[in-house]
Amino acid sequence: MIRGMLIFGAALAAALDGHAADGPARAVPDTLAQRVAACTSCHGSAEHPPAQDALGERRYFPRIAGKPAGYLLNQMQNFRDGRRQYPLMTWMVSPLSDDYLREIADWFAGQHLPAPVLDRASLPPADIARGRRLVLQGDPAAKVPACVACHGQRLTGALPAIPGLLGLPRDYINAQFGAWRNGTRHALAPDCMGTVAARLAPADVVAVSAWLASEPLPADPAPAQSVPRPLPLACGSAPEGRP
Amino acid sequence: MKRIVLAALGALVLAAGVAAWVAWPRADFIPSRAPAAWAPTADNIARGAYLARAGDCVSCHTARGGAPYAGGRRIATPFGDLVAPNITPDAATGIGAWSADDFWRALHDGRGRDGRLLYPAFPYTSYTKVSRDDADALFAYLRSLAPQRRPNDPHALRFPYDRQWALAGWRLLYFKPGVFAPDAGRPAAWNRGAYLVEGLGHCAACHSARNGLGAVGGTLSGGLIPAVGWYAPSLTASNEAGLGGWDRAHIVQLLRTGVAPESAVFGPMTEVVANSLQHLSDADVGAMAAYLQSLPATREAREPAPAADAGVMKLGQALYGQHCKDCHGADGRGASAGGAPAYPPLAGNRALTMDSPVNAIRIVLNGGFPPATAGNPRPYGMPPFSPVLSDNEVAAVVTYVRQSWGNGAPAVSAPDVNRYRAVPLD
């Protein structure tokens, strides 16, 4: 398939070579979709769905389509300002202004992409059961709130800045918990997810990521308009008083 | 016999001492015109703010995510890391206790308030050309900032580079203080451009090769930026970024907005345009362009590059068709959008065809955006291809674009690509 695309691409390139050589430079669409081709090459777009691995799960890069714009803006600023560390993302967003980042966040918030999920039957049943309990009920003994308490009963996030948790690659979820625990991922203080991650055992993280990555998106993947306040933990990126 | 040897030795030591004394870089202390020159007046502060933009002080003196000018950014060098200090007016950790004369000595003579010699990563070899009046306005501006209490981290240099005597020796060899002397035979705009390029702009800090001791050649003849791994092209060589043949309006457009019909800025220059050049006036950037265009053009004679292996070119062409053509065009002529430059042409693009393939490799691996500027607030970006292409594939596609549409640059190899896989941030 890829080989076929390569040959087709080469044939097309050869066919076009020499045609436009004397004309003015071509025009591309004056649209945000065209401007952010640098982002959708990894994060996917309707025309170019994100790459998937053999199990049908999307590759490491997280789903950002449809996430609340406030969350996406926070993350781009976190990369730019060193609170999150993924050099390629820092590199991409550093030259851009807050206004432009806001526009990009709004655009991705309005996108909707299919979200392939892991085959649950291929995962250890014990992990799935433990993961489901943690996501829906939390672990009161470890003072870990349920994911749904903040991320919404449908886990699609909440406006304006709490992200949805479904449709993410399992590797990505695991890596975020690792980064919080190692102190290489931060949010605006107080960093609620840093606190949660520190209270979870590695086996809990594995269970949560197994369940989340194998749970299909609900029919309506839009974020909730709001979640009950106050949140179980104070979060600098979704502060009280700014519902 | 013994006395003759001793006398000869003594004469040698004396001669060396005299030579060092004669060659010692002496600062001409120029007093302030009047205390009014650095008084916190709106006029001085505004002028100083503009000059701070011209000097791009904020880029080094700000840590990622930190308060502007509060220092903390680590500057990697082949001799170890230097940490840019806090230059906000905090009395304990910044320059709050400095006098205008202290500030002048730092800028002009590379000395701290305590008399210690400063490291030339702080480009005082260029800043020494700044006039006392401009230094005073800069001082007035920095004093007007909100003080930030942020103690300076120590430098982390290896022996012997961490010694003051080593620095003294370096200055003896490579530093000559002196304010810019205008050339009366040249127009005022040329002199203004020369003053900005050679002084505050410190273009030579990147665009000149450095020798083994980190000294800048000062000829804007291009060089690999140490430790960062981007190649800052020659600003005089016609086969690199020499500006002789360019439409001046396009040079100004590139430097003030980040894009021009022929090119887009990338790599470390992105930050220079975002933090410095876009904030300068058309007249000043035009003067800088005029000065750069007046420099004698150089061109290294080179043999035409041998044609790359046909299999590599075939793979490169296929990859180009799949990943690059939609934006840069099958003919390599780039694309515009709404009448403005969107994607730069690759045919004849010297950023691509100069001998050093470093930048072309980095651009394909990392992608990125030109800076968002007032003149180009919503730039078009390039995807990073490091996640999807192997070293071999990147080498093939870079080789293909370096040898197509009349481009005649040498092929690159997979090991060339592999060396630059990591994303350089600072």
Task: Record the SSE blueprint.
The complex is a heterodimer of chains A (243) and B (426).
Chain A: H1 2-16, E1 26-27, H2 32-35, H3 37-43, H4 69-81, H5 87-93, H6 98-109, H7 125-137, H8 147-151, H9 170-182, H10 192-199, H11 202-213
Helix pairs in contact in A: 4-5, 4-6, 7-11, 9-10, 9-11
Chain B: H1 2-23, H2 42-55, H3 57-60, E1 74-77, E2 80-83, H4 100-109, H5 124-127, H6 132-144, E3 156-157, H7 164-174, H8 188-198, H9 204-207, E4 223-224, E5 231-232, H10 248-257, E6 259-260, E7 263-264, H11 268-275, H12 282-294, H13 310-323, H14 325-328, E8 335-337, E9 340-343, H15 350-353, H16 358-366, H17 391-402, H18 414-418
Antiparallel strand pairs in B: 1-2, 2-3, 4-5, 6-7, 8-9
At a glance:
Chain A has 243 residues and is mainly alpha-helical. Chain A is built from 11 helices and 1 strand. Chain A has a single domain (32-213), classed as Cytochrome c-like domain (Cytochrome Bc1 Complex, Chain D, domain 2).
Characteristic key phrases:
heterodimer; A: about 240 residues; mainly alpha; Cytochrome Bc1 Complex, Chain D, domain 2; 11 helices; about 0% strand; globular; disordered N terminus; B: about 425 residues; 3 domains; three-stranded antiparallel β-sheet; two-stranded antiparallel ribbon; 9 strands; about 5% strand
Word description of this protein:
- The complex is a heterodimer of chains A (243) and B (426).
- In chain A, helix 4 (69-81) crosses helix 5 (87-93) and helix 9 (170-182) packs across helix 10.
- Chain A has eleven helices and one strand.
- Chain A has 243 residues and is mainly alpha-helical.
- Chain A has helices at 2-16, 32-35, 37-43, 69-81, 87-93, 98-109, 125-137, 147-151, 170-182, 192-199, 202-213; one strand spanning 26-27.
- The N and C termini of chain A lie far apart (48 Å).
- The longest helix of chain A is centred in the first third of the chain and has 15 residues, at 2-16.
- Chain A has a single domain (32-213), classed as Cytochrome c-like domain (Cytochrome Bc1 Complex, Chain D, domain 2, Orthogonal Bundle), CATH 1.10.760.10.
- Chain B is mostly helical.
- In chain B, helix 4 (100-109) packs across helix 6 (132-144) and helix 13 crosses helix 17 (391-402).
- Chain B has three domains: 31-174; 188-294, Cytochrome Bc1 Complex, Chain D, domain 2 (Orthogonal Bundle); 310-418, Cytochrome c-like domain (Cytochrome Bc1 Complex, Chain D, domain 2, Orthogonal Bundle).
- The interface between A and B is large, with 50 and 51 residues.
- Strand 1 of chain A pairs parallel with strand 8 of chain B, so a sheet runs across the interface.
